[in-house]
Amino acid sequence: MRDFSADHRWLSINTATVRRQRGQEWPLLQILEACAARGYDLTAFRCREITAGDFVSHDLILAMDRENQAQLEARRPAGSAVPIRLFLADREVPDPYYGEADGFETMMSQIEQGVRVLLAVAPG
């Protein structure tokens, strides 16, 4: 398993969705398999929907695509100034459900690349 946080132990990362499907608390099998192939164990992971509290308790909110970014902006509570940016800065992480057969592998590569960039620019 890759330890991207070795020099950033102070960094806290959380994940949420803009819309959780009723009854869907675990990642889909394709995501579990793509993560497992790279050494990430998501068996304890549970999906949750973003809350108003997330806009208070986080310094930055990242969206995987522009549609999610717009949905997050629409859910922003009044008075919240937390930045909402694209995870890959200038491009989207394509939704793997609607792409080619290797979409989940591509998604993982893009996420790992994005994490490296975030850690490179993060203080610490």
Task: List key phrases describing it.
124 residues; Rossmann fold; two-stranded parallel ribbon; 4 helices
Record the SSE blueprint.
Elements: H1 29-36, H2 54-57, E1 61-63, H3 66-75, E2 84-86, H4 103-121
Parallel strand pairs: 1-2
Describe the protein in words.
The chain is mainly alpha-helical and 124 residues long. It has a domain at 51-118: 3-Layer(aba) Sandwich (Rossmann fold). 33% of the residues lie in helices and 5% in strands. The chain is built from 4 helices and 2 strands; from the N terminus they run ααβαβα. It has a two-stranded parallel ribbon. It is globular. The model is unreliable at 1-5 (pLDDT under 50).
Helix and strand sequence: HHEHEH
Tell me how many strands there are. Answer: 2
CATH topology group of the domain at 51-118: Rossmann fold
Strand order of the largest sheet: 1-2
CATH superfamily of the domain at 51-118: Response regulator
Q: What's the short version?
A:
By secondary structure, the chain is mainly α.
